[in-house]
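re: that chain from earlier
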Amino acid sequence: PPHRPHIPGHYDTQYHDLITPFMKALSLSYTATSGGYYNPSTANETVPGYIKSTLISNPACGMRALAFVSEVGGPLPNIILVFRGTDLSGDVPSSTCDGCADTILFSNVTTMSDLPAECQSYTWEQLDYYTQAVRYTRQVMLAYPGSSIRFTGHSLGSALAAMMSTRLATCYHQSPEVGVNGGVIGVGTAGFVLPALNRMAGELGPSTMSPSSIVLLDQYYDPVYNTSTTDGLYGTLCLWVSPDP
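^ sequence. v structure.
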């Protein structure tokens, strides 16, 4: 379709050059933050060509996010801001809090009393990942004024990335572009993004966001693949099929 952004072919070097920094950031969002996937050996790793910002959101219960600042690229740095996805490891409190946050984001829950029993040990402030993501994005913007921020995330994190990009377009009148300023390259959550953006429309009103500024990469065996292709989609879905082992 005419609104689809240019994403180079699967085997194109340009394609790999575009997504590789995002994929590294996604990996570190899981292994370098607290929770069931934490790996101490990656705690100080960074994205090649980028410096890991000291601005980190890494509570025991709450939204996890990292920012990586480009080493070169002109007077103003490029920034990759990555939101971690749902912790499915069973780790407590990480998995529990993420599950509760999913319910708030994707089920239109507005009060603690509507949440499952396992969520009642925490506060609304801990489980409201959207508000935490807004706060963190503002911190990054204030720390690096005028810089180009590119969002990414997996699962829950992809939805948060799309929501923050929409806020940039609507509240700050920026024009997101894929892989450039305000654009989103998300993984594995096309079916989650639509309800998240519907919430944004209710809160912010009409958005200047274009579907061409969000690219979501789905893998055939991802658990949300069927949801992604049947429940509506905002953005561009790129599906790849892994070769058999």
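Helices lie at 13-31, 94-106, 124-127, 129-143, 156-171, 190-204, 225-230.
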